[in-house]
Amino acid sequence: MKKNNWARLIVMVVVIALVASGCKSGGGEGSKDGSVSIQFWSAPNPTQQAFWKEMADEYMKENDKVTIKVTPMPESPSSEAGIQSAIAAGNAPTISENISRGFAAQLAASSAIVPLEEFDGYDELIKDRKMTDTISTWKFADGSQYVLPIYTNAMLFSWRMDILKELGYEEPPKTYSEVLEVGEKLKEKHPDKFLWARADLVKPTWWARWFDFFMLYNAASSGNNFVEGSKFIADDQAGIDTLSFMSDLSNKDLLLTREATDPFETGQSIMMDLGPWTFTYWADKFPEMKYGETYELSMPPVPDDMNPENAKTFADTKGLSIYASATKEEQQAAFDFVKWVYSNPENDLKWLKDTSLPPARDDLSSNDTFTAYFEENPQLVKFAKNIPNAVPPIDNEKTVEIQEAIGKQAVNPVVKGDKDPEAAWKDMKDAIDGVLK
């Protein structure tokens, strides 16, 4: 049995045992006078831990019967493994952040986390935080919401505008044919340069598919779901179009798939999949990278028969979940704390300033609270505007196996020239169907 399956089995057995015995995991304690103590696990990131500690301290000043203990979650060998171990040992927190949609599906399948829409005040929370559109794409196959998204990075492509202008272009290409045309001109003028440098295109690393295949597939399919419950429901034409585009890029020698150091920054390539975390690195190592001058940002390109204005992309995003092993009083107290945090957009502004992670709000680019920040950081505006157009990871407990199949059966062999797109798509579907059985 695979390691992942053992972990799932352990989680399921422990949760069933806890429910059957009526005991709890130690997420916190209630008392006769109405006081309650909850444990909040933050992401293992100092800025996020500091944010939640400050929020907890402020909340406790207004709610003296609530004690919130904020600590970073264990991350050995990963935060997901740390959470699974805690559940198996009966030491789960009351609530934690850093939960992806795929991992949440695994936890939900084991009844380790609870549906958030069942809490008093849920609808008010979604309304107050202006996140109706954003959270709609997080709904799970059973119709419930097991994660409240905290931040959403709408993954974009960055283009070297200085090189594009040299080739005669004033804006990034938006369709497949426009991209290929740019690539052709690039090779004519600079034979040693590439369009896209991405070594992961020839590696089966499961999470890498978020930043290549799913960015392009979401754009080509208008955000069509890939898997729903135990069924593969992906858009066949969009999938084949995505792989065909990758094949064309490879056949025209526009992909650099060997390891390279900072190829985009040095001009070895002119297109890069990009998240907002990159800007801190650039400010330190490549101050010459200037938004609107050296580089520009765009949504993923789309097939020629689609309107680029309707493009979707992948959402690098994580959120909060509440654990089933806590008592009902502890669970509600944890939810009330989260509801209080997100009732004030100033708290989302603080989060944005502290972490540089865009809050998962529909109004991030239009709410006056954030105007001054975006005026000072214009490179983040397109990330904010496209939050409603960003599709979160698939909600399936076998996400790892599914995305490994995408790499091994489709993306990797197509880029290497070992399969044509149609055959690769069929092989991938067969492999995923086998995983889902």
UniProtKB/TrEMBL annotation:
Short name of any one Pfam family annotated for the protein: SBP_bac_8
Keyword Ligase attached: no
PROSITE patterns to which the protein is assigned, alphabetical: PROKAR_LIPOPROTEIN
Protein keywords: Signal
Signal sequence residues: 1-25
Segments crossing the lipid bilayer: none
RNA-binding recorded as keyword: no
Name listed for the protein in its UniProt record: Extracellular solute-binding protein
Originating species: Halobacillus salinarum
